[in-house]
């Protein structure tokens, strides 16, 4: 029998702040797991997911018209059209059975695979069918009206980073990449025990005359645990059978990451809990100076964390939501909830000028004072990655000419779980950068190229810009670190391309990078040097390279073209060539610098990035041609 002197008393009540610290210090982290894509919604990625394929996986027409060899249209206009023969037609969803030779075209529909020999599409509105073929009334450049393989997201690109909450947006991107199983953070298993002879499980007969009540806490807490990202496990009702209570506590501790009990405030029940904790764990807190919630226990039972909650349902739920739910969310990799709208100021002016209502995709970033800035995100309606690059949308009323820089706008979030990234970066696409970003909690990076990253940094939008090549030294921003990378021509394993001279003089198909890329600027400088040696200008050198005008945005895309046999050489990095087992012709090294927005140098995430840049050796391991600097 338990005497009055045996009863545990609440002494030295902990403050709410102390209680938060104690609960936060509990280890409730589960092991990671892999789940089917269909079950991945609301889970959190445990590791980075890179694109293994290009999206789209082929060069495709972006409108109805005629697939052409662009050079055949040069000089054509309304007054002086060019007539080309029709070699055949290509429809969406079928493999082309026609080749576009010089002087011919192929009729093509939107979304269809570009046929061999064609590098541009003339929209049907600028053509006229004639007895001799088709009359072309405009000139096009290579790549016009064509969505190149990897234009949405390219093989080798960083698709999603660890810690990403998987919403329908991310599921769409993973589906596009062909991912059917997803590595996710485990959900902490939370065992739930309710005690008291008066409790009856819903569905069982209730004797109100005997003072019985339905067990509210078990189901309420199970719902709260699930909402917080945990996996609730309800154990049988123990009543006031203390031997059974002890057995269930041991069983739950062996099977779960966290054990919750509610009630158990009688002297005998508390004695059972104390005995179990003293035998197998540690009592860390007994009682909190808060109302409701004074009778709160925190400790460990074996390898499991334990929290004893009050018996009254409102008190139990309040204490759980206040103190325990944040720990469950953190263990599951989830952030704390917020409302579905956010108010911020426009980081840049956004012009519109159409008479229609616009739902403008928008991203969020915090400035140096913690205030929200809103920036437009629009890669086109067909780009899956716009879904994860944007946090929501701004409803722009019809008749709005522009949103001014500094104007306050409301952003409707895609999900209540959306949070601004801790770090917003823009600029050069680089494989070492992907590893670097993995060291930062919840970053967002837009690979827009060095030139565009530097421009947007000047406008005050990103926290950092990553700049490569000559532009790395052409700035007045705060340089927080960087590295050197070896660049050149990625070629086939048996290629006889040995340098730029071969590319200029030989009949090789080349794949270039876009003009915003630091690689492209270094490449153009090398071409200028070749021209100077030969006494000719860049235009003549460029004209001799088949494919110079056909550009890609991602660092692996040219190499992937070579790997597929669609090109003889591509502009790229030694690291990419080594990864894909391709040949490489070195053209030199170039610096890659990470530049911080001077006003946000004090942001915690920028500081964390600077620290990671100070220790790059571990990240460059296994990456050919990459060296810390």
TrEMBL record:
GO terms for biological process: Mo-molybdopterin cofactor biosynthetic process. One of its GO terms (molecular function) is molybdopterin molybdotransferase activity. Pathway: Cofactor biosynthesis; molybdopterin biosynthesis. It holds the Pfam family MoeA_N. This is Molybdenum cofactor biosynthesis protein MoeA. PANTHER family: GEPHYRIN, MOLYBDOPTERIN BIOSYNTHESIS PROTEIN. The keyword Isomerase does not apply. The lineage of its organism: Archaea, Methanobacteriati, Methanobacteriota, Stenosarchaea group, Halobacteria. GO terms for cellular component: cytoplasm. Transmembrane segments: none annotated. CDD domains: MoeA (cd00887). Keywords: Molybdenum cofactor biosynthesis. SUPFAM superfamilies: MoeA C-terminal domain-like (SSF63867), MoeA N-terminal region -like (SSF63882), Molybdenum cofactor biosynthesis proteins (SSF53218), Periplasmic binding protein-like II (SSF53850). Residues 191-330 form the MoaB/Mog domain.
